[in-house]
Design goal:
Strand content: 5-15%
Largest sheet: 10 strands, mixed
Distance between the termini: 34 Å
Structural class: alpha+beta
Shape: globular
Number of strands: 22
Length: 954
C-alpha cells in the first residue's frame, strides 16, 4: 500500500470480496439504496418524456399549420394577447367602461394565399350499445396534410363522405361500438358509419367523434331546434398555413381586428416580456414561476432528499457495522501487518462505495427498463402520450451519485469505529470499552430547542408553513443527535424488568454505537408517520364538525335541468326501482320561454325567473347603486360588522344543500316530508294556494312573495350592471313563512303546480326527492348509476350518507409503512447485537441456560430497539403537526376577522376553532403492535442453538 491509489484499490477489492461473501446483507443494503434511486430515476424519465417541447406541443395542437385563428369575442375591437394566444384583453378600455362582447368575422383576417381548415367543436348525445353518451363532436378534415398530428389514425381510414365519422379509441371502448358500426344522436336520427379510430395524444381519455366540416353539427342543431330545444353550443377556430408563417409583428397586426392568433413561429421563438404589450397592463403580467418560487421548490426538494438520505444512512449504517464487526479479525490482521487506521477506514468505506455504485447501476438500469416497459400503462394513467423518450444524462448521473454518496455516508461511522479498535482487541475478539460522545447530545439539545422555537415562531407569529416545517425538521435532527443519550436514559428502567428483557436493554445501552442509529431510523420514520397522522386526524375532526348534509340522512335527490326535463320520468323510475324508497316527492321547476330552455340559458326565446326581494328587505351592504360601485364602501368597518352580526337582512340562512335554481321548487307537501320539515301550517298553506318560504327577506309588507318572469335577458343584464330594477312580469302570491330556523337543505320556497299555474307560471319536470327506509348500499348505487349513465344526461344525483372519513385508509397505510421501517431497523440492530453478543450467548449455554433463551433474548433485543424508537418518534412527531394546525388556525382567524369587517354575508359570527386530535388508534398500533410484532418476528427467525464452538486455548 505505497500510494493512496494502491491502498484504495486493495481496499475496494477486499470490500468487493466481503460483499460477495455476505450476499444476504449486501442485497439488503443494496435494495435499501437502490429502491429510492429506482423511483426517483423512473420519475425523472417519466416527467421529462411527458414534458413536451414547444415543437411537439404545436404538432398536437395545430398540426402542420402555421397558426390557429379564433375569435376573441370582443366585438372586433383591437385586443392585446400573450404569445401563446391564450389570454387577451381590449387594447383600450377605461376602468368604468364595460367589457366589449360580441362576435368577429375571423375569415376576413386571413392573409391572401393562405390555406385554411375549419375546426369546429360541439357536443351531442350519441347512441351507443349501452344507451346514450354525451360526446364531443369535432368537425375537421383530419385527412388534410395541414391537420397532420392532431388526431393520429390508429385503425381504419379518415371520413370521406358526410355520413362517415371516425371515433377515438376511448369512445369505442366506452360505447361498445367498433369500426363498421353506425351511430346517431338523440333528436337526430340520421345514421353515421364509423370508418376509423384515432386518438388525441394530449387527451387519451376523451370521448370524441370526428366528422367532415358541416356534416354533423349544423344539421344536428336544426333538428334540436325543430324539437323545441336550445341550439347546442359550439366553438370554431381556423388552422391557417401561409408561406413565411406569422411573426410577432404580424400577430399584433391581426390583433387589431379582434382575433387571437396562436403562431408557430412565435411559440418557437417567443418575444421578451418587455415586447408584449399585454404584460405591461396592470394585472396582466407573465405569472410564470419566478426565481424566488424556483428557489423555494429547490429548497423543498433538497430537504426531502436530505431527510430520505438520512433515513437510508440510519438504516444502512448498522448493516455496515455488522459487516465490520464480523470482519474484525481480518481488519486486525491488516493492522498487525502494518496497516494504518486510514487503511482500515478505507476498507470499511469501500464497502459503502461498492454497495453504492452497485445500487446506482441497478437502480438506474431498472428505472430505464421499467419506464420503457411500462410506457403504455404510464401514458394511459397520465392521459397523454410521451414525446420522445427523454433521458437527461446529467440528471440521471446526479441521481446515481446520490446512491454512491448515501453508501459512503452510511459507512462513515462504522469505518471510524472500526479504525479506533486496537489490533489486540480485534484479533482476540474483545469488544473493549466504548464511550459515547458527550458533545453530540449537547448539539442535539441545542438543535431541538432552536428548532422548536423556530416552529413555534412560525406558527404563532409569521403564519409561514415553510418556517414551521424547517423548525420541525431541525428539531427532529436534534432528537436524532440526542438518541445515544436518550438510549442511556431508557437503561435505568431495566431494574424492574425480568431477566431476558433486562439483558436485552443492558446490551442495547452498553452498545449505543449500534443501537442509536437503529433507534434513530425508527424515530425518523415514526415521527413522520405521527406528524402526518395527527394532522390528518385533526383535519378529519374539523371536516366532521363543519360538515353540512345536503339532505336528511339516507335521502336521495336527482335533478335534470337539460332538454326541458325530457329524461326526468326515466330518472324518477330508476330511483323508485333501484333504491329502497319509502316516500317519493316529484318536483318541477319554473320555465320562462320555450320548454326546452335551460334555467340559465340566454338563447333566443328563452328567459329566466327570480324571486323578488322587496327593497325594504335588502341588505344595505348589497343594495345596487345607480351607476354601479360597491355599496358596502358607504359604511365603516364597525358598521359593516354590526350589519353582518345583528341585521337579519344580512344574515345568510342557507348553507349547503342541493343547488336549486332561484331557490324555488314546484311540488306538494311530500317534499316537506322528505326534507324532514314537520310543520302542519306549511302543509295547510300549500293546500290554500300559498307559497311556503323559509326566507324572511322574500315576504313583502303585504305578506306576499313576488315571482318575476324575465323574457329579455339582455335588457335584464344591462339593468343589473347599471343598478336599475330588472324589467319583467311580477306575479304576487300569498306567502307562509316557516317559523324557526329549520334546515330546508337548499330549498328557499315551495309552490304547488296548481298555484304556479294560477300565477301564470309555466313549469317543466325537474327531478325527484326520495326518503329511504334504510341506507343505500353499494350494489344499489352501482345499479342506479349504470341506469342513469344509459340516458346520457347530466343528472345531479346525491344520496346522503353523512360524513365519510376520507383519511382512514391513509392513516392505516402510514402506520403499516412505519411498522415495516421499524421492524427492518430493529432487525438490523438485532443482527448486530447477535454478532456482538455471541460470546455472552455461549457463556449462557455453558452455565446451563435452556436453548429458548437465545430466541427470547433475540426477540427482546429487537423489541427494545423498536420500542425506544417508537416512543421517541411518537413524541417528536407531534411538534410539526401541532405547529401546522396552529398556523392554519391563525390564518382562518385572520380571514374570519376580515370577512366580518368587510361585511361579507354568510360569515359565521363565531370565530373558528380548529381541533388538534391525536390519532390514538395509530399511536396504539405503533406503540404496542409494532414492537411486539418485531420481537415475535425476531424470535421466530432466530435459531435456538448456535454453532458448536471449540474451547479456545489458554
Amino acid at each position: 500500500m505505497k500510494t493512496w491509489f494502491h491502498s484504495w484499490r486493495a481496499a475496494i477489492r477486499i470490500a468487493r470480496r466481503d460483499a460477495w461473501r455476505a450476499k444476504g446483507r449486501s442485497a439488503l443494503v443494496l435494495a435499501m439504496i437502490a429502491l429510492p434511486i429506482l423511483g426517483v430515476s423512473a420519475f425523472d424519465l417519466t416527467f421529462r418524456s411527458a414534458e413536451l417541447s414547444p415543437a411537439e406541443k404545436l404538432d398536437r395542437t395545430i398540426g402542420a399549420a402555421d397558426a390557429r385563428f379564433r375569435d376573441a369575442d370582443m366585438a372586433g375591437v383591437p385586443i392585446l394577447q400573450d404569445p401563446a394566444g391564450e389570454m387577451s384583453a381590449p387594447a383600450r378600455k377605461e376602468d368604468d367602461e364595460r367589457w366589449p362582447s360580441g362576435p368577429t368575422d375571423v375569415t376576413k383576417t386571413f392573409p391572401a394565399g393562405s390555406t385554411v381548415l375549419t375546426d369546429r367543436v360541439g357536443s351531442a348525445k350519441l347512441t351507443t350499445s349501452h344507451g346514450l353518451l354525451m360526446t364531443e363532436v369535432r368537425e375537421l378534415k383530419a385527412s388534410d396534410p395541414v391537420a397532420r398530428g392532431i388526431m393520429p389514425l390508429l385503425e381504419g381510414r379518415y371520413p370521406e363522405k358526410n355520413d362517415e365519422v371516425m371515433a377515438t379509441s376511448h369512445f369505442l371502448e366506452t360505447s361498445g361500438l367498433s369500426i363498421g358500426s353506425t351511430l346517431s344522436a338523440r333528436n337526430f336520427e340520421r345514421p353515421y358509419r364509423i370508418v376509423g379510430s384515432y386518438e388525441l395524444p394530449d387527451s387519451l381519455k376523451t370521448d370524441q367523434v370526428n366528422a367532415l366540416p358541416g356534416a354533423f353539427l349544423a344539421p344536428y342543431g336544426k333538428a334540436a331546434e325543430k324539437a323545441g330545444l336550445s341550439t347546442p353550443d359550439s366553438s370554431v377556430s381556423y388552422l391557417v398555413r401561409k408561406p413565411g408563417g406569422f411573426t410577432w409583428n404580424t400577430v399584433q397586426e391581426i390583433n387589431t381586428k379582434g382575433v387571437l392568433v396562436a403562431s408557430r413561429a412565435v411559440l418557437l421563438s417567443p418575444p421578451a416580456d418587455a415586447d408584449v404589450p399585454l404584460y405591461q397592463k396592470d394585472g396582466w403580467g407573465n405569472y410564470e414561476a419566478g426565481s424566488a418560487d424556483r428557489a423555494a421548490e429547490l429548497a423543498a426538494v433538497a430537504t426531502v432528499v436530505g431527510l430520505a438520505m438520512l433515513e437510508i444512512c440510519l438504516l444502512a449504517g448498522p448493516a455496515f457495522a455488522v459487516g465490520a464487526r464480523r470482519s474484525r479479525r481480518q481488519l486486525g490482521l491488516v493492522g498487525a501487518n502494518g496497516g494504518a487506521r486510514s487503511h482500515i477506514r478505507a476498507i470499511v468505506l469501500s464497502g459503502g462505495l461498492v454497495i453504492g455504485v452497485a445500487a446506482a447501476v441497478v437502480g438506474t438500469v431498472l428505472a430505464v427498463v421499467l419506464t420503457l416497459a411500462l410506457q403504455p400503462l404510464l401514458e394511459q394513467a397520465m392521459g397523454q402520450r410521451f414525446g420522445a423518450f427523454d433521458v437527461r444524462p446529467l440528471e440521471i448521473l446526479v441521481i446515481a451519485l446520490l446512491a454512491v454518496l448515501t453508501g459512503l455516508l452510511a459507512a462513515i461511522v462504522p469505518a471510524v469505529t472500526a479504525s479506533r479498535q486496537s489490533v489486540l482487541s480485534s484479533l482476540t475478539g474483545r469488544r473493549g470499552v466504548r464511550r459515547s460522545s458527550r458533545v453530540l447530545p449537547v448539539i442535539g439539545l441545542v438543535a431541538l430547542l432552536l428548532g422548536g422555537s423556530v416552529a413555534l415562531f412560525g406558527s404563532l407569529v409569521t403564519e409561514q408553513v415553510a418556517v414551521v416545517a424547517a423548525g420541525s425538521a431541525l428539531a427532529e435532527l436534534g432528537v436524532v443527535a440526542m438518541t445515544p443519550a436518550l438510549v442511556g436514559l431508557f437503561g435505568r428502567s431495566g431494574r424492574w424488568l425480568p431477566l431476558s428483557p433486562r439483558l436485552a436493554l443492558r446490551d442495547a445501552v452498553r452498545n449505543r454505537g449500534r443501537t442509536a442509529p437503529a433507534v434513530a431510523a425508527v424515530l425518523a420514520a415514526v415521527a413522520g408517520t405521527v406528524a402526518v397522522s395527527t394532522y390528518m386526524a385533526s383535519r378529519e375532526a374539523e371536516n366532521r364538525a363543519s360538515y353540512e348534509p345536503r339532505l336528511p340522512y339516507g335521502a336521495a335527490a336527482a335533478f335534470v335541468r337539460e332538454e326541458g326535463g325530457r329524461d326526468v320520468p326515466a330518472v324518477r323510475e330508476a330511483i323508485q326501482r333501484y333504491l329502497p324508497v319509502e316516500l317519493r316527492a316529484d318536483v318541477d321547476r319554473v320555465s320562462v320561454g320555450r320548454p326546452g330552455c335551460s334555467p340559465w340559458g340566454d338563447d333566443a326565446g328563452c328567459g329566466r325567473f327570480e324571486v323578488v326581494v322587496p327593497p325594504a328587505n335588502e341588505c344595505p351592504l348589497y343594495v345596487s347603486l345607480p351607476g354601479g360601485g360597491d355599496p358596502s364602501e358607504r359604511f365603516t368597518p364597525d358598521q359593516r360588522r354590526k350589519l353582518v352580526t345583528d341585521d337579519w337582512r344580512c344574515k345568510e340562512s342557507f348553507h349547503g344543500g342541493i343547488y336549486i335554481d332561484g331557490g324555488l321548487l314546484v311540488g306538494d307537501a311530500k317534499v316537506l316530508q322528505v326534507l324532514g320539515v314537520d310543520d302542519p301550517g306549511a302543509v295547510k298553506a300549500l293546500a290554500d294556494g300559498k307559497v311556503v318560504t323559509f326566507d324572511r327577506t322574500q315576504i313583502d309588507k303585504n305578506g306576499t312573495v313576488g315571482l318575476k318572469q324575465i323574457t329579455d335577458t339582455a335588457a335584464a343584464d344591462k339593468a343589473m350592471e347599471e343598478g336599475r330594477p330588472v324589467p319583467g312580469k311580477v306575479s304576487s302570491v300569498p306567502a307562509y313563512l316557516v317559523p324557526g330556523d329549520k334546515n330546508s337543505y337548499g330549498l328557499q320556497a315551495l309552490i304547488t303546480p296548481a298555484t304556479a299555474k294560477a300565477a301564470g307560471l309555466s313549469t317543466v319536470p325537474l327531478g325527484v326527492y326520495a326518503a329511504t327506509d334504510r341506507l343505500v348500499d353499494s350494489e344499489q348505487r352501482q345499479k342506479l348509476d349504470g341506469e342513469i349513465a344509459k340516458l346520457g344526461s347530466s343528472v345531479d344525483l346525491h344520496v346522503e350518507e353523512g360524513f365519510v372519513n376520507e383519511y382512514g385508509i391513509v392513516l392505516l397505510s402510514l402506520a403499516i409503512f412505519a411498522g415495516l421501517v421499524t421492524i427492518g431497523a430493529a432487525g438490523i440492530a438485532t443482527g448486530l447485537a447477535q454478532a456482538d453478543a455471541e460470546a455472552d450467548l455461549k457463556t449462557l449455554a455453558a452455565v446451563g441456560a435452556p436453548p429458548r433463551v437465545r430466541r427470547t433474548l433475540s426477540g427482546f433485543q429487537c423489541g427494545v430497539v423498536a420500542a425506544m424508537g417508537v416512543v421517541l418518534g411518537s413524541a417528536a412527531g407531534l411538534l410539526p403537526a401541532v405547529g401546522l394546525r396552529l398556523t392554519e388556525e391563525r390564518d382562518q382567524l385572520r380571514y374570519h376577522e376580515m370577512s366580518v369587517t368587510e361585511g361579507w354575508t354568510g360569515t359565521d359570527t363565531a370565530p373558528p376553532d380548529l381541533p388538534i386530535v391525536v390519532p390514538w388508534e395509530t399511536l396504539g398500533l405503533l406503540l404496542v403492535a409494532v414492537p411486539l410484532g418485531a420481537a415475535l418476528l425476531a424470535a421466530l427467525v432466530t435459531r435456538s442453538r448456535g454453532a458448536l464452538a471449540r474451547r479456545a486455548a489458554t
